[in-house]
Recover the amino acids of this structure.
């Protein structure tokens, strides 16, 4: 194995690990499952790395492999069964002042996203990451129009979960 | 404000993940993957080996002598030759499909390729079950024509005027036997792949539904 390639990979992954963590957070509940999925994604990324040409950003390339691993390759069910599994306090950077009401609403939103299925979570993830519909459609392998339609349905679904 | 946009505002703030060190990444890289592709590969190799072993075990000297006695030695030689050629073809297709599985493809394509790889092995299993069925039928026919015990039973039945019933009964028993073998295999595969690919099937269906 090319040690230079290895070093480059480790460095890039270390710098871009947050995007992988975000996917793990979305698709798993609990610290062990998070670490397990992170490890599987790392293995898959390393396997695919020799083909990474660098014509896209590492993070763009990595999140695609990571999503595919979470949705398709990861054997354990990634769908969280329990609600309220998202611990907001754990990941929250304390700010000088924040809006408690807004904070509560955000926590409910995370819980609602947790109840979506794997594919819907992927769409939400890319939406939150500011990916355009062309990229979303290419990543999932669906048409752009249908990606848009599905995203709107997800928004409605989330609304319904939040206001039953 | 849209709920999701509120979440978006918050999304990038929540980045206080426990950071993985370079050393940990080095270590992780060398761990074995437990992905379904890995499992699929392992199971497929076991399946291929199982049928090869079965052919080798059953193809012993006693069997050859029997074939010779029945006068179908030449015929069986060609059947075996074709069988091995088909096996090589299946392994080739399996390998080709396996190589196309890439995590950088779109999710839908990736899922499609995984399912295609699995199907190759599945077709091989069905092909083998077909061969097993033909073999059982041939063996029963051979029994009828060459087995002394069977012939005396048949003569008995003919003498009593039950020839048709006897043949019907034998066919019935063979059919049940064949159905049982195929049934067991079918159940085994349903369970095996059902457990392994359940999540993938659910997600694949969900993706296809979006594009309907």
């Amino acid at each position: 194995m090319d040690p230079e390639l290895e070093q480059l990979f480790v460095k890039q992954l270390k710098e871009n690990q947050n995007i992988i963590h975000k996917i793990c957070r979305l698709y798993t509940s609990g610290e062990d499952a998070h670490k397990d999925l992170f490890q599987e994604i790392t293995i898959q990324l390393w396997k695919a790395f020799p083909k990474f040409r660098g014509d896209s950003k590492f993070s763009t390339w990595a999140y695609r492999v990571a999503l595919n691993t979470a949705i398709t390759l990861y054997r354990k069910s990634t769908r969280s069964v329990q609600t309220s599994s998202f611990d907001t306090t754990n990941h929250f950077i304390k700010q000088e002042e924040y809006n408690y009401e807004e904070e509560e609403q955000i926590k409910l939103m995370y819980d609602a996203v947790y109840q979506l299925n794997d594919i819907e979570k992927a769409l939400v993830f890319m939406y939150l990451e500011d990916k355009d519909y062309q990229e979303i459609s290419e990543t999932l392998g669906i048409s752009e129009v249908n990606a848009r339609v599905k995203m709107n349905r997800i928004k409605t679904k989330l609304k319904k979960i939040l206001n039953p | 404000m849209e709920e999701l946009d509120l979440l978006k505002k918050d999304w990038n703030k929540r980045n206080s993940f426990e950071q993985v060190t370079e050393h940990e990444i080095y270590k992780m890289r060398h761990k074995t993957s437990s992905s379904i592709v890995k499992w699929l590969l392992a199971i497929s190799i076991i399946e291929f080996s199982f049928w090869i072993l079965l052919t080798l075990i059953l193809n012993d000297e006693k069997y050859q002598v029997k074939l010779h006695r029945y006068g179908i030695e030449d015929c069986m030689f060609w059947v075996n030759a074709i069988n091995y050629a088909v096996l090589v073809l299946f392994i080739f297709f399996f390998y080709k499909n396996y190589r196309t599985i890439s995590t950088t493809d779109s999710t839908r394509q990736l899922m499609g390729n995984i399912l295609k790889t699995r199907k190759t092995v599945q077709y091989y299993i069905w092909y083998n079950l077909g061969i097993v069925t033909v073999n059982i039928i041939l063996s029963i026919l051979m029994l009828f024509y060459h087995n002394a015990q069977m012939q005396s039973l048949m003569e008995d039945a003919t003498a009593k005027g039950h020839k048709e019933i006897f043949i019907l009964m034998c066919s019935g028993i063979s059919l049940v036997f064949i159905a049982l073998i195929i049934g067991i295999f079918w159940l085994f595969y349903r369970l095996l792949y059902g457990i392994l690919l359940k999540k993938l099937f659910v997600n694949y269906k969900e993706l296809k539904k979006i594009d309907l």
Remarks:
- Chain B has a mean pLDDT of 86.
- Chain B is about 85% helix and 0% strand.
- Chain B touches chain A through 49 residues (CB under 8 Å).
